[in-house]
Amino acid sequence: MDTFVIEGGRRLTGRVRINGSKNAALPLLAAALLTDQPVKLREVPNLADIRNMLRLLGELGCQRTDAPDDGSFGDGTITQRVTDESLSHARYEVVRTMRASICTLGPMLARRGFARVSLPGGCAIGERPVDLHLRGLAALGAQITLTGGDIIAKVPPGGLIGTTVFLGGPFGSTVLGTANIMCAATLAKGTTIIESAACEPEVVDLANLLNKMGARVSGQGSPRVVIEGVSELGGADHRVIPDRIEAGTYMMASAVTNGDIVLENCPVDSLLAAMHCLDTIGVHVEACNAGSANIPTRSAHRGCEDPMRCCVRVTSDRILRPVEVTTQPHPGFPTDLQAQLMTVLALADGNSVITEKIFPDRFLHVAELSRMGAKVIRHGPTCVISGVRKLVGAPVMASDLRASAGLVLAGLAAEGRTIINRVYHLDRGYERMEDRLRALGASIQRVDEKEVVGVEALSA
Ligand code: EPZ
After folding, report:
1. How do residues 195-217 score in pLDDT, each as one tens digit?
2. Which end of the chain is more exposed for a tag (fewer CB within 10 A), N or C?
């Protein structure tokens, strides 16, 4: 398995371009199951989760038609087309490695009338139930049974019927649940209203693709989404929105190294809560064309032609200020930036509080950060972080995608050498992170764990 070897203390400077969004691309790829026409996506990131989704869709009869002859991923343009609708079983062996496979359920059911998808089970950040997904599909008339760890869903002879469904749960709405119900409702008879729909930008991007395919979705981005069913959907050509979590991660990488970096293709309009929080801490995000004036983050995209594809410059005060943050559904502070923020606050001048309202157990990074000298006390879903003057490099263990990102930031800031084991977690959501950080001035190497002896990497 690969590890990262990081020599901390280097200031990040330079430019980095934000990739297409993993969490938008996954349901967008699955939407190809809704039609027998080709669906082309542009700016799909080259990530482990994306490659796994392409493999799963291949098993479901949806083939990529423009794969490069040399078997490489290509430039991020991916065209898929369904050639066999008899293959409708998303197997446990695939689903257990990537929970997002659940987003094949709605499209497959709506188009084929049948779907068998393994229950995803839990993961490192907590239980990952799908009861809200099943509530929504059952409300549309699907016959749902659970057998042998699989969800078996069937459409009755009369087809799916539009209805009003409440998708709220104890932690708010569900992103992939909204995606599933929205997809299924596009081919239902009549109108469907999703009350308490997820408002995430990735859901908006999916709705925009569905409309390009001939669907009639409105209200996306608000808690009430309305879908008027149509008889069939066609192909489309769609550009994936930039990845707001990747962008927020690089903003925080600049903050922990007192850096000065420019983010290109940055979806500022989907990061306002995170940028407000960073502004409070003393991290400044300004539009590139704003000149040297330090403008408030709320207008960071003034002058950007597309507020979802901005060029921004990220700098920070030398002394970072503490803050109190609660993660919430969009447009609140995103849970996917919580671990990264904790690393920033570990170096702030004072006591901060983070409360995790989406995944209350999403704190596997706390023990690892503590190994590097962070002072964090957890009480259930709340952590109190007492800032320290410096972190010290150490061998640490990645546990899930965003916790890994938080540890990379800690390694960049720490004094000395940090070894991050199991970076395959990171490869699920960050493309070539070590190369891009090195281009910004970081000292970071990817080495096989066998080459790392204790804290000394033979070939750092
Ligand atoms: C999406 O997961 C993202 N993944 C997650 O990002 C993200 O953390 C999450 O949304 C919340 O924003 C993708 O888009 C591929 P949810 P999703 O259903 O849709 C509970 C990353 O790091 N819930 O919105 O699976 C659930 O337990 C990943 O990129 C139910 O109770 O999340 C959680 O507490 C991690 N019943 C909350 O709702 C359900 O049926 C939000 O979950 C579904 C969810």
Report:
1. 999 999 999 999 999 999 999 99
2. N
Tell me the fold of 22-239: UDP-n-acetylglucosamine1-carboxyvinyl-transferase; Chain (3.65.10)
How many Å apart are CA 203 and CA 158, to the nearest integer? 28
Name the residue with tokens 């409309």.
211
Q: Is CATH 3.65.10.10 the classification given to domain 2-19+242-459? A: yes
- Confidence grade of residue 301 (pLDDT, cut at 50, 70, 90): low
pTM of the model: 0.96
Tell me how far the alpha carbon of residue 224 lies from the centroid of ligand 1, in angstroms: 18
For residue 360 and ligand 1, the question of a CB distance below 6 A is answered with: no
151 alpha carbon – ligand 1 mean position (Å)? 18
Task: Please provide the average confidence, as pLDDT, over all residues in the chain.
Answer: 94
Q: What is the DSSP letter of 357?
A: S
Distance in Å, CA 397 to ligand 1 centroid: 23
Domain ranges of the chain: 2-19+242-459, 22-239
Q: Give the pair of three-digit tokens for residue 201.
A: 């930008």
Q: Which two tokens stand for residue 335?
A: 């849970």
Phi then psi for residue 345, to 5 deg, are -70, -20
Residue 20, pLDDT above cutoff 70: yes
Q: Give 368's contacts (C-beta < 8 A, 6+ positions apart).
A: 396, 397, 399, 403, 407, 410
pLDDT digits 0-9 by tens, 175-200: 999 999 999 999 999 999 999 999 99
> Which tokens belong to 126?
């907590």
From the CA of 170, give the closest atom in ligand 1: 31
Domain 2-19+242-459 identical in fold to domain 22-239: yes
* 123 among known catalytic residues: yes
Q: Which atom of ligand 1 is nearest to the CA of 99?
A: 25
Q: Is the CB of 357 under 6 A from ligand 1?
A: no
pLDDT at 378: 98
What is the atom index within ligand 1 of the atom nearest the CA of 126?
27
Length of the chain: 460
